[in-house]
Design brief:
314 residues; alpha+beta; 60s Ribosomal Protein L30, Chain: A; Phosphoribosyl-aminoimidazole Synthetase, Chain A, domain 2; 2 domains; 7-stranded mixed β-sheet; 14 strands; 36% helix; globular
């Protein structure tokens, strides 16, 4: 049998999609309910690879639900609930369990939904799998596919904050507000829904793995490219002062963990999108290639960012 050791997450996803057939490369799967879609997504998180050592159990619970809801936001849907399966390690005492599940519940409640149920068992390493559900009208659903050359490239919020938080923690800047951005991500539920209702967005996804990988994903499904203007990238407050502009831009491109929405807008409908939520235009859709323009120079953006490396297959 062929080896797959050392393959990236995205390489294996593309391979698996060919095996399964008919799977759309979107943040959520969509099920036809007649006048609307049920959108469904799942994300798995592990203690060693997804939860920084500084994170408390409540934050682990919050993050586990937040990352799942972010996929629903990217489809322009209203959340309908979250299922959570938790594999608890031997170190999980009652305090840890109470805080973990309070984090699940608090995050769901904050975004207007609830935990519907799930599964519980023991596991060698803390492993949490969420399944988020949402509803969206058929004429409002937003997908990764749909961007066209000439569309404007936009983002919600600011970028690089989670990467800056990770850097601050590792470098001993424990009082940095960016650490909270890392440990308590905020999925853009209201923004996703408002953008869907605006009718201005042509394609959208969440930015959990960093801007560079998100643009690579969008370019692949749309068979198009992107031009990003470096000076327009909205960097997280305090990031440049902490690490310098060059490193801050690199964090926005590749650090991941921001959970903003990256989307394209029909330029004739930009005012509608701006009325829907705070956004920043950072570039445009082009025919091919992914480029960064800075001080009149263009350089290629390579698809780098947060990805699991998967090995052990034979």
């Amino acid at each position: 049998m062929a080896e797959c050791g050392g393959k990236s997450e995205r390489e294996l996803i593309l391979r698996i999609m060919e095996i399964l057939g008919g799977v759309e490369n979107d943040d959520c799967a969509s099920l036809d309910l007649g006048d609307r879609y049920l959108v469904v997504s799942t994300d798995m998180l592990h203690r060693e690879s997804d939860f920084p050592d500084i994170m408390n159990p409540w934050q682990m619970g919050w993050m586990s639900v937040a990352v799942n809801l972010s996929d629903v936001a990217a489809m322009g849907a209203e959340p309908a609930g979250v299922l959570v399966a938790a594999g608890l390690s031997a170190e999980a005492d009652l305090y840890f369990i109470d805080e973990l599940f309070s984090g699940f519940s608090d995050c769901a409640s904050y975004y207007g939904t609830r935990i519907l149920g799930g599964d519980l068992d023991s596991h060698q390493e803390l492993t949490i799998t969420g399944c988020s559900l949402g509803f969206v009208e058929k004429d409002l659903i937003l997908r990764r596919r749909g961007a066209r050359p000439g569309d404007l490239l936009c983002t919600t919020g600011t970028l690089g904050g989670a990467g800056g938080g990770l850097w601050a923690w590792k470098e001993g800047y424990s009082d940095s507000e960016l650490i909270t951005r890392l440990l308590e991500p905020e999925p853009r539920m209201a923004e996703g829904r408002a953008l869907a209702k605006s009718g201005a967005v042509t394609a959208m996804m969440d930015n959990s793995d960093g801007l560079a990988l998100s643009l690579s994903d969008l370019a692949g499904v749309n068979r198009a490219g992107f031009l990003v203007r470096e000076e327009t990238i909205p960097l997280a407050a305090g990031l440049v002062e902490m690490v310098g502009r060059e490193k801050a831009v690199e964090m926005a491109l590749s650090a991941g963990g921001d959970f903003e929405l990256i989307f394209t807008v029909d330029p004739e409908k930009l005012a509608r999108a701006e009325a829907a939520c705070d956004l920043t235009v950072i570039g445009e859709v082009v025919q091919e290639g992914i480029w960064m323009e800075a001080q009149g120079m263009r350089n290629q953006i390579l698809p780098r960012g947060f990805e699991h490396r998967i090995g052990g297959c034979r």
